[in-house]
Amino acid sequence: MDNDIQEVLFDQDSIHHAAVRLGKQITKDYAGEEPVVLSVLKGAYLWTADLLREVDLYVKLEFIKISSYHGGVSSTNSISLVTDIHSDVQGRDVIILEDIVDTGQSLLFLKKLLAERGAKSIQVATLLDKKEGRKVEIKADYIGFDVRNEFVVGYGLDYKEMYRNLPYVGILKKEVYSD
């Protein structure tokens, strides 16, 4: 798999330091609260595990799965809810954990869904923020790294369900995904 990577952008140590930094900030910002942490599957599972180990709060962890890429390298602009949460978020603080905020459409979909369900507040902690890819006006509240407009994989991010297990985030070589 390493041979398919053009460039490593963020190694394990860098990602760990980002988790520590954001974990401390979330702990401070939510002191005395018990937020619902909503991990967006499948991409955010590693980020969720590492970030939550750095958060010193009681949290209720939930997982949600939505789909917008459907196996490709760019969003289809069609968001679908694949697996819903089990918790009631009415009157609760919610922190969405994302692997990457790209077009922003998935995040907008989630924020609207949670707002309709009565969440008291909704914030986003993302490993990667790809501002150049935005198609809608939306922002993350806690950002591990800004990333340039490249197709990245690793550390939970995939191409056709592969590369998620790389211990770093890297740029996938174009010849791997172009026909």
From TrEMBL:
Family according to the record: Belongs to the purine/pyrimidine phosphoribosyltransferase family.
Pathway involvement of the protein, from the record: Purine metabolism; GMP biosynthesis via salvage pathway; GMP from guanine: step 1/1; Purine metabolism; IMP biosynthesis via salvage pathway; IMP from hypoxanthine: step 1/1
Gene Ontology CC terms, in alphabetical order: cytosol
Primary role: Purine salvage pathway enzyme that catalyzes the transfer of the ribosyl-5-phosphate group from 5-phospho-alpha-D-ribose 1-diphosphate (PRPP) to the N9 position of the 6-oxopurines hypoxanthine and guanine to form the corresponding ribonucleotides IMP (inosine 5'-monophosphate) and GMP (guanosine 5'-monophosphate), with the release of PPi.
Residues in Phosphoribosyltransferase domain copies: 12-160
GO biological process: GMP salvage; guanine salvage; hypoxanthine metabolic process; IMP salvage; purine ribonucleoside salvage
Catalytic activity: GMP + diphosphate = guanine + 5-phospho-alpha-D-ribose 1-diphosphate; IMP + diphosphate = hypoxanthine + 5-phospho-alpha-D-ribose 1-diphosphate
EC class of the enzyme, as a word: transferase
Organism whose genome encodes this protein: Leuconostoc carnosum (strain JB16)
UniProt-listed Pfam families: Pribosyltran (PF00156)
Protein name: Hypoxanthine phosphoribosyltransferase
GO MF term set: guanine phosphoribosyltransferase activity; hypoxanthine phosphoribosyltransferase activity; magnesium ion binding; nucleotide binding
Gene3D superfamilies according to UniProt: 3.40.50.2020
Cofactor(s) for this UniProt protein: Mg(2+)
Localisation per UniProt entry: Cytoplasm
EC number(s) from the headed UniProt entry: 2.4.2.8
Swiss-Prot/TrEMBL keywords: Cytoplasm, Glycosyltransferase, Magnesium, Metal-binding, Nucleotide-binding, Purine salvage, Transferase
InterPro entries, per database record: HGPRT, Hxn_phspho_trans, PRTase-like, PRTase_dom
